[in-house]
Every structure is written in C-alpha cells, then in structure tokens.
Amino acid sequence: FSYRCASLHKHPPELRFSLSVGTKTGYRLFSVTAVDKLDCIHEGVECPDVYIVERLFSSSLVVVVSLSMPRRMNVYHFKKGTEICNYSYSNNILSVRLNRQRLVVCLEESIYIHNIKDMKLLKTLLNTPTNPSGLCALSVNHTNSYLAYPGSATIGEITVYDANSLSTVTLIQAHDSPLAALTFNSSGSKLASASEKGTVIRVFSVPEGQRLFEFRRGMKRYVSISSLSFSADAQFLCASSNTETVHIFKLEQHSPSREEESPTWSAYVGKMFTAASTYLPAQVSDMMHQDRAFATVRLNMFGLKNICALATIQKLPRLLVASSDGYLYIYNVDPQDGGECVLVQKHRCKEEENPEDVPPQPASQSYAATVALPSTPPSSTTLMGYSEDGGAQKGEVIPEHEFAEGPVCLDDENEFPPTCLLSSREENLPDVFPC
C-alpha cells in the first residue's frame, strides 16, 4: 500500500494508497481512492509468474522479478511501456526494497545496494547470515536510507546499515529467536521487529537502537508474523500472521504523573505489580510490562499469507489487509477506543471479470461509522541493459522528476511525493527457488 499527498494546500493532505499484485500472467497495480473504489491503473504482461513487484512510491517506475528468471530484476516505466534496465545476480532474488536514493536487492546470503538514479552498484554485502526469506527493510525516508536485515541466523539480532554512507550504524539484540518481520516508520526513526515465535513485537529507536515499546501478540501459540506496518504518524503499529487475527498496537508512553494526580484502584494495583515484578524472574517481569493489542480484526480466513497496512482514507483511519486469496479487505479503526474493527468493504484483486464487492455495513455505534463521510496493451520497446561495472550502458537514466519532493496534485504525473509501500502477490508462489 502506498500513500501520497494530494495538493499544495496547508490543511492535512488527503492520502492515496496503491496495491501491487503479482499474477500468473504478469502484475497489476491498483489505486485505492475511496473505501468503495479500487481501480486497476495498470496491468503488466511483460513476463509471467511475477513473484516480486515493487513500485517506486507513486511513480511510473516498477521493479519486477519473475519465476521464469528468478535471478533477473527488470525495471520498467509502465506508463511508457518501456524497460529502463535489467540486472542479473548470482542467485535467486528474494526481495527488493527501494526509496528515492537506493534500490536494495536481497539474496539468501548477500545484499546489493544500487544508486537508484543510474542503477550503479554502490556496495555488495557478502556473506550475510543465511536469510532464506529475504527479510530486510529499507527506510522510505531517503535522507537516511536506513537498511535493516538479520545479523544472525540463530538469534534475533538486527543489523542497521546506512545505505547512504554505506556503513553499519548499530546492532540490536532484539529477540532470542531468529527474526521473522521488520519495518521502519515513515521517518526512519523507529524500527519494529518480530521473531519466528511471533509472540512479542518490539519497537526500537533508530539509530540508537534503544527499546521503546514491547507488545505481546499472544501466549497460547507460536505464529508466523507475515507483516508489520506503522501508521503514517507512527502512533499505531499493525501486525498480521498466519492466524485469523490482525493486531493493532498503540505506541503511547504511560505518564506516571497522571496516576499520581488521580489515583484509582487499577492504578494502585498496577503499581503493586510493577513493584513485585522486580523480585520475579526476568521472563515473567518482561511479560508483566508488555502492552496488549489496542484493536483487533478477526479475518474470515486461516493459514493464508497476507499483508496489512494502516491508512487514512476519506479522512478516517482504516486497516487494509491484502490476502493471498486474491481479496483486499478494508476495516474501520476506532482511534480512541480501539476494540474490534468493523469490515466495511471487500475488493477482488484477481484477474477474473465482474469483481465481487461487499457493500459497506450499516452504520453502527463505532467511531468510524459515526463520523464516516460519503465517498465520492503496453509497448514492447526494450532498452539496453547494464555494463559489467553496474552502470547504464545506453539505457534511460531515471529522470529527476521521478524523485521530486513535496506535496503536489494527484493528477500531476511528473511529481511523486513520499509514500510507503507494501507489495503482495496473488498466487501462492514459493519464496525460495532451487538453483
């Protein structure tokens, strides 16, 4: 999902969100402008069986990797219908991340960092810990371009790397078990992580690496966390997994002064627990200090891979969940009281015709429902690839306007303000491929 500013007005800008989906025949790009509207803005058929598709924010640049050539990355200008460049690697590509300064390609035991404006290879991180899922996160704030990836294959250590200065920033001992999910907030000042156990989610400051928050997703069972995502203001963090529940956590520091000014029975009990925790084993003490979910969503599916994102659509907070069953689900989120989120729309992202939508539910007493507002074939031209030194040989140099900053009109194709992006693919294709 991606969001972008709508205009130059000084009032809080409208946001636009997009969804990228890999399919058997290619890839599809969708734009979400309203809760009840999902527009397919482009369908690429340059190569079949796409399992990675990453768009440069809201620009016309899209990076594609196909099952037929898993070691080759293609960069397209989808509005022109042209290939800007392609690049091949020594092993299968597991993930791609990009912002206005850097394009990062992650293999199982190496990471390649490119200058996105001319695709020159700037740095190769060789012999990185085995990373079979290609787990990594790149800050969308290109002024720092922090890159996070596993620092160990056996414990949950995070390496934070500055992709601009090409130097290691810090190592964070985040979890006892190997990492399963990583994400930065939009400014790159916070980093969230989860381990393979999936019971605890932690948030750290960047670049200091100090633990800021710790949330408990559950205790009854271990789960596989499939995605983490901050809200645009970094006040909320959502987490989805292979279970039927999506959790939303609220990032707020509890003020002890308020409890002292207006003492209550619950505050008194809380203080007693805090005092008692100092005499308990470390694991029990940590559990007592972990916050629980502020809001939850019960999905009508179980065991399917999905991704989640927090968005503001039509001036209201929403949770978006894209699932491998080919649907996009949109829920209302109550930012004041939290609780169970309400499903308001279901969109089909599959290639079949006659999309099947679920109409919005009747108004309820929830915050979001109460204040809701009414909604208002490509060219086959191929450009030259790359020389051995990693620079463009005769291909296009990515135009400067693709990296322009600042809020602008949505209809202006020459400007693309900051966004955050999550990509999903429609088919259950394998993440690791045999050599």
Judged by helices, strands and strand pairing, the structural class is mainly beta
Mean pLDDT: 77
Separation, N- and C-terminal Cα atoms: 31 Å
Sequence of strands across the biggest β-sheet: 20-21-22-23-27
- Count of DSSP-assigned helices: 4
- What proportion of the residues is helical, as a percent range? under 10%
Shape: globular
Strand content: 35-45%
Radius of gyration using CA atoms only: 22 Å
Describe this protein's structure.
The protein is mostly beta strands. It is 7% helix and 40% strand. The protein contains four helices and 29 strands. The protein has helices at 256-261, 265-277, 282-288, 367-371; strands at residues 17-22, 27-34, 37-44, 50-55, 61-66, 69-77, 82-88, 95-98, 102-106, 110-115, 121-126, 137-138, 146-150, 156-162, 167-175, 179-184, 190-195, 200-205, 211-216, 225-230, 236-241, 245-250, 295-298, 306-313, 316-323, 327-332, 339-340, 342-348, 423-425. It has a five-stranded mixed β-sheet, with no helix packed on it. It has a four-stranded mixed β-sheet with strand order 3-2-1-29, with no helix packed on it. The protein has a four-stranded antiparallel β-sheet with strand order 4-5-6-7, with no helix packed on it. It starts with 16 loop residues before the first strand and ends in a 10-residue tail after the last strand. The model is unreliable at 1-14, 256-262, 282-289, 353-365, 372-396 and 404-435 (pLDDT under 50).
